[in-house]
Target: SDR family NAD(P)-dependent oxidoreductase
Amino acid sequence: MSSAPRLGGKVALVTGASRGLGLAIAQALVAEGGAVACLARAGPELSRAVSDLAATGAGALAVPADVTDSGQVERAVRQTLEKWGRLDIVVLNAGTWQGAPVHETSEQMWDLLLDLNLKGAFLTLKYAVPALIAGGGGTIVGIGSLGAWAGQPGASAYAASKWGLRGLLESVALELKPHRVRVSLVHPHNINSAGPPLARDAPERTRKLEPSEIAALVAWICTAPDHVSLGNVTIWPVAAGITAG
Ligand SMILES: NC(=O)c1ccc[n+]([C@@H]2O[C@H](COP(=O)([O-])OP(=O)(O)OC[C@H]3O[C@@H](n4cnc5c(N)ncnc54)[C@H](OP(=O)(O)O)[C@@H]3O)[C@@H](O)[C@H]2O)c1
Model:
């Protein structure tokens, strides 16, 4: 939000950074002068995202991994440390949405949501936190959802995964406070990310947030003065949030 880059010399790991909100967060962090390791499953989308970032002169590295696979996440963190020798920021963004009434929720859907939205965050923390502690501190930002705050009919498994993420990170925040690692959760609602982007003048556009609008908030959290820590932050479009009626 300021014009002078504030993350020079800092290194971030962003999960789910091949598209959507994760890519917008990676773009916002490199705009602040940070170097970013982009984690997503291997494929052309991740390669393109990282080469586009690198083309701007930014420090960008693809660390292909399935966030639900312990060995792959460990390797991605190791590759980040081998490249830059430090880690300062971890953004737990990889996640997805699926929904059905609870009695129509398949075990497969339950496992997908809990594995990706919750276990993936746990595994990333498991391997990244030692580097944050070794570096003397840092910032962790989890991407939750309004579904982490209120029950959602037809989305009980998704809500369980995001409430779980909130419980995980609120506990980790207390564990890591002595190590000067601050932990925040950003809870967005209705992002113009999945699927084809809406045109600027599309009527539904006012009911969606642009990924860059949420990414700016994440960048603000990561660049706040060291003594400032945000906890849970909700962000929604005025026309479609929980206060919109
Ligand atoms: N969209 C919304 O309205 C909304 C609302 C509230 C909260 N959120 C949350 O915001 C976050 C981002 O959402 P989005 O809409 O930007 O999602 P998206 O466009 O579907 O992007 C998801 C990202 O996660 C990656 N990913 C998926 N499965 C993965 C796996 N197993 N291992 C590693 N990476 C994986 C994807 O890359 P690959 O597929 O290439 O691996 C992609 O980079 C999620 O946590 C979501 O729950 C979204």
User: Anything to note?
Assistant: The two ends are 31 Å apart (CA to CA). The pocket of NAP is lined by residues 15-22, 40-41, 43, 45-46, 66-68, 93-97, 116, 143, 145, 188-191, 193-194 (CB under 6 Å). The longest strand covers residues 181-188. Strands lie at 11-15, 35-39, 60-62, 89-92, 138-143, 181-188, 232-235.
